[in-house]
Amino acid sequence: MMGSLKKLWIGLFLLTATAVVSQRVPVLPQIELPHDYYFRELYLPQLMSGPSAPDWSPDGQQLVYSMAGSLWRQEIASHTAWQLTDGDGYDYQPDWSPDGR
User: Fold this and answer.
1) Is 59 exposed, middle or buried (0-12, 13-18, 19+ CB in 10 A)?
2) 88 Cβ partners below 8 Å, 6+ apart?
3) Is residue 25 domain-resident?
4) What is the pLDDT of residues 48-99, one digit of tens each?
5) What is the pLDDT of residues 72-82, one digit of tens each?
6) 6-35 b/e with 16+ CB inside 10 Å = b?
7) Range(s) of the domain holding residue 19
8) Is residue 55 in a domain?
9) Angstrom distance (rounded) from CA 79 to CA 47
10) Which residues, 6+ apart, have CB-to-CB distance to 91 below 8 Å?
11) What is the side-by-side strand order in the sheet with 62-67?
12) How much is the pLDDT for 39?
C-alpha cells in the first residue's frame, strides 16, 4: 500500500512539473516593442568584466575597448593601456572618429 501511494505522489509531482515547465514563454516574445528595429538597438548588460567591443584607431596603432563599464585605450606597440573614463555611468562600445579622436 505504501509503495503504490508513493508512486502516485511521484506521478502527480511529475505531471505538475511538466505542466509548469511547458507553460514557460521564451524571453524575447515577452518584450513588447513597437518595431523590429528596436531589437537591434537593445543592449543587454555585459556578463563579464573583461575587454569587449574593441575598435581599431584609423592609423591601426591603437585599440579602444570597453571593460568593466569603462573605456580603455591601448597602444599596440607598448602593450600599455590607459583608462579613459571613470564615473558613475556605464561606458561601452567605443568608436573612433575618422580623424582619430
Assistant:
1) exposed
2) none
3) yes
4) 668 888 889 999 899 999 888 889 999 989 888 999 998 888 888 888 888 8
5) 999 989 888 99
6) eeeeeeeeeeeeeeeeeeeeeeeeeeeeee
7) 2-39
8) no
9) 25
10) 66, 69, 70, 71, 85
11) 52-56, 62-67, 70-75, 80-83
12) 55
Provide the number of structural domains found in the chain: 1
Q: What's the residue count for the chain? A: 101
Grid cell of 49 as nine digits: 568584466
CA distance 13 to 42: 39
Task: Please identify which residue in the block is written with the cell numbers 585605450.
Answer: 73
Q: Which candidate, 75, 67, 74, places its Cα nearest to that of 92?
A: 67
Grid coordinates in use for 80? 600599455
DSSP secondary structure letter of residue 82: E
Distance CA 72, CA 57 (A): 12
